[in-house]
Amino acid sequence: MENDKYLPLLAKVGIVVNKPDPDYDRATELRIQIAAHDEAYHGRDEPVVPDADYDALVRELVAIENRRPDLVTSDSPSGLVGSEPNEMFAPVEHEVPMMSLDNAMDLSELDAWHERILKSLDDSDNPRFVCELKFDGLAVSIRYDDGELTRAATRGNGRVGEDVTHNVLTIRGIPHRIDDAPKILEVRGEVYLPISRFNELNRQQTANGGPPFANPRNTAAGSLRQKDPEVTASRNLAFWSYQLGQTSSDATISSSEETFALLERLGLPVNPEIQEFSNFADVRGFCREWMEKRHEPDYEIDGVVVKLADLAQREKLGSTSRAPRWAIAFKFPPEEKITRLLQIDVSVGRTGRATPFAVLEPVFVGGSTVGMATLHNEDQVAAKDVRPGDIVVVRKAGDVIPEVVGPVLGERDDESQPWSFPKTCPSCGLALVRSDGDANTYCLNRTCPARVETGIIHFASRNALDIEGLGERTVRGLVEQGLVRDVGDLFGLTKNQLLEVLVADASNETLVNNLMTAIDEARQRPLPNVLIGLGIEHLGPSAAELIARRFGGVEAIANADADEIEAIDGIGPVIAQSVTDFFSNSHNRSVVEKLKSNGVRLDLVEEERDAPQILAGRSVVVTGSLDGWFISREEAKKAIVARGGKSPGSVSKSTYALVVGAEAGQSKLDKAEELGVPIAGEAELRRILDIGELP
Ligand code: IVH
Predict the structure, then answer these.
(1) Which atom of ligand 1 is nearest to the CA of 103?
(2) Average pLDDT of the residues in 660-688
(3) Is 109 helix (H, G, I), strand (E, B) or coil?
């Protein structure tokens, strides 16, 4: 939410609203865009954007989710292409892939699945169906060897997950040792946070002055996908087992009943609500019943999973690359609640767009407390006919973004008046403008404090210049005191000026020194980050990277025409036009000039430029620490990859050379010698990178 002025107000009356979180907002926005494109592509078979633009959206989302595991949602479209395992954890390859489930969004889609099943089975098969709740947690695989818990992993992208063994060992109810277990037993199931424990955790969290957790699912994911087992232990996670993965031949299982009987006998937690039916009408009945009862259990569920019970029949149906054909997730419709719409306000973002939003009496819906909801634009408010004071229906769109569905007309006050869009900007007071044919209303004042502030906050954010310590309060102070009018001014700030703003904030000199250092360091951020920071519409990280590589510097990008930019593989016409529009604006050009004269790097440095692919097809292994020419081994690996080569972690007979740094382990050296792989030092590595060959 761009406008957070109600947060302190609501906090004062004891109401907690989720804090503004640009990553959350961006991830949500991306999910909605991706879902709309998916619908256009799969549903209507008419894609509206080039594949590369679509891929860029998905990649951006995956990048955010990898960086912020707490923001991953179970139905994130990133899961469709797999969320790449985070490098923080050791990778674990799943011998049996961990698949996704196809969704049935209503009972007719569930029936359609049933029809498909019947067609693929023989008449004599008489399928039985097992109905399970769909737990809203995160899937994990837990492996026992000779009864000993040896490894636990997240699903990751389905083929490779993350090793979270130490954390899983702290979860109550998951046995560390199982007597009488098959030689190899891989148990799969859902790690979740019971709602009562989630509420308790949030009470503690807010009592300690911390921000509340958004919902049980994200908290469970965040608690498992972090490094410290003590943190996991303190969160009181729980587990339901529902499937077997890899098992040795001494586990003979032919149906889901046998699976659950085995899991129970071995002491693993099995959910008590599982039921089996032969009659499909009963399956529908189970789904309907749980739609009504969805809030009864002390854990969150978002649907019912229906699976064929017989494993031989499952075999017959097989799987697609993504999901088995023998199972389907019946998803509950988004939950709706009613609450009072207190007022409609307008926030102005960095592009000047004025967005109306509803300030609501906070209500717990779809897993988190909602105190505000965007109303998008003037027409949307009119179409929904929502008015201040109305009782309104609220739900989570795609279970993520809060949405006002509409008013409960029977409850409307006789005196109520339709809302009208303000004529002037709530921040600078100048006239707001809506052009013909445009649904959006804008504040055109480039010096509008709201625009400048949100622009600077964006500029300083993680994906852009990543200036630590430049928070909203500081930015507001700097803008209010007239010290900063655009992002270019940031780099001209003096220590005294910062002190003036921060001292009012009861801060000390260390903070100012840190901020000065952070600003100074930001001068050297890579060019793509600067492009992102400038806030060019439609420009995401991957497009920024492509454009930066092609042109090498801001000057050349600013002088390029749209055709030249569009000629880059992976850049579509919308982005190309947006970039040229941006640089043809004189204000934007002057901001860039200011950045330049204040010492911000606006060119790629040598090693960021496209290197000739002289190492294509060659694999160079680097071992030991390289502290001579390169800063680190990682840097050396990057340089190899940038030249088209590979730099795997182990030596094989196809390795072109083994580069050995200080304190290298003996085993790679032995292996290289055994296989006749040439051994090189740093000097030779330099030659390899220069000419692609060993001297
Ligand atoms: S079966 C191939 N059973 O839903 C079978 N999954 O959308 C996939 N889930 O990754 C797993 N409750 O995290 C299964 N009773 C249940 C489930 C369940 C929740 C989750 C699981 C999976 C996701 C697929």
Answers:
(1) 7
(2) 86
(3) helix
